[in-house]
Structure formats: C-alpha cells, structure tokens
Amino acid sequence: MSMSAAPDRRATLKARHRAAILAAAHDLVQERGGPRFNVDELAERADVARRTVFNHFASIDEVLLALSADVLEVIIDEFIAAVAASPVGDGTRASMFTELAEMLRHADLPSVIASVSNILGDPDGDDARSRALTHETFARAAERLLHEVARRYPGADTLDSEVLVGSLMNGVVVIAKRWLGQSCGRTDAHSRADWDHLLARLTNTIRSGYLPAV
User: Fold this and answer.
1) Nearest to 56 by CA among 68, 70, 42, 76
2) Are 27 and 76 in the same domain?
3) Which end of the chain is more exposed for a tag (fewer CB within 10 A), N or C?
4) Is the CB of residue 67 less than 8 Å from the CB of residue 21?
5) Are 46 and 148 in the same domain?
6) How many Å apart are CA 205 and CA 198, to the nearest integer?
7) Calpha distance 89→85 (Å, rounded)
8) What is the pLDDT of residue 126?
9) Helices 128-152 and 158-183 sit at what angle, rounded to 10 degrees?
10) Could you tell me if 23 and 79 lie in one domain?
C-alpha cells in the first residue's frame, strides 16, 4: 500500500465534508430565505459533527462568505477568460479602466447581487453584519481582479491599479444597495434596465471624476 494512501483518504474526506457543509448551507438559505440558521442546524443538515464545521470554517459568517465567493467566482472566471483572449492594452489608467468597465457592463451582476443578497442578507438598512459581510465578499473578489490586472499590466503603477479596482468594486456595492431597494432582488427586464442605468452612472462618474467640465 502506498504511504500516501492515508493522507489522500484524509484529504478526500476533508473535501467531502467541506462540500457537504456548503451544500447544506445553500439549502438552508434557500429554504429560509436568508442566513437564518445556526451551527447546530448546519451540522445536522450536512450530517457532520458540530466540531467538523469549525474544522473548516471559523464561524457561520465564514460559511456564508464562502458561498458568496463561489457565486462571484463564476463571474470573475468568465471575465478573466474573456480578457485573456483579448489584446493587452497600453498599460495606461484609461486602458485598465476601459477593460474593467466593459467587464462590469457585460457581466450578469444583477443575478449575482440578488444571489449574494439572499445568502448574506440585504446590505442596506440597519443590519451591520450583512453590510460587513457584503463588503468583505466584494473585497475578496477585488483582490482576485487586482491580481489579474497586475498580471496583464506588470508595468502599471500598483497604486493606480489598487485605486481603480477598489473604486469600481466599492462603487458596485453602493449601487447594489440602491438597486436592491428598487428591484427587491427581481431580475426581470425592467430591473435589469435599472441596473444598467446605475452602472452607467457609476462608470461615468469614476471616468470623469468630480472636476467641472472644461
């Protein structure tokens, strides 16, 4: 028997437990209309011990963040695949901005935001926890986007890249709050048109800044 057989079995079991915990959390969110469950309920649904949940995640919030990250990862993967197939720009701030703005325009962000809101709770209102989790989710997504920008533009000023990505991703969180208030999480044609309008305002504001037109 290979000496690696036991570690491989442990790794397989660990991956299976993690997947079961996330699947159980997803089901509970869907059934209860949001993050309305505790660790004991999650462990029972996943058919694992309570301590097993904590072996994988420090808290319920970390479980929710992992679920939300999975939703955003799909969009980010699509973006990276698309830009990888396109010519690299000239490395200017304008070039980087255009790439990221186009990614946002073509991504199905309404569906993503509605899903993340369902997982974490509405980031608007008085729920400080859901606001914090929403910001953390998009901050983690921003880190991956920043890595991709740095890969495509190795000569770009890192501060310019960080400000650009941060401005766009934080702006998405701001307009997501407004859009959720208007749409109640619906993703019909009318709500998507509202999103497109908000996104256009965001990108135009960041592109032009706040200086008066000359």
Assistant:
1) 42
2) no
3) C
4) no
5) no
6) 11
7) 12
8) 57
9) 140
10) no
Q: Residue 84: CB partners within 8 Å, gap ≥ 6?
A: none
The CA radius of gyration of the chain, in Å to the nearest whole number, is: 20
Q: pLDDT tens, 121-165?
A: 776 555 677 788 888 888 888 888 888 888 888 888 899 899 999
**Can you tell me the distance from the alpha carbon of 51 to that of 46, in angstroms, rounded to the nearest whole number?**
12
Neighbours of 64 (CB within 10 A): 24
What the block records as the tokens of 56 is: 């994988």
Q: What are the CA-CA distances from residue 40 to residues 3, 56, 71, 93, 100 (Å)? A: 36, 15, 25, 49, 41
- For 57, left (φ over 0), alpha (ψ -120 to 50), or beta? beta
What gap in Å lies between CA 43 and CA 53, rounded to an integer?
7
- The packing angle between helices 158-183 and 93-106, to 10°, is 30
Q: Are residues 99 and 147 in the same domain?
A: yes
Residue 100 lies in domain: 60-208
Last residue of a domain, one of 36, 57, 78: 57
pLDDT in tens, 23-67: 999 999 999 888 889 999 999 999 999 999 999 999 999 999 899
Same domain, 197 and 113: yes
Using CB atoms within 10 Å of the CB of residue 72, give its burial: 0 to 12 exposed, 13 to 18 middle, 19+ buried: buried
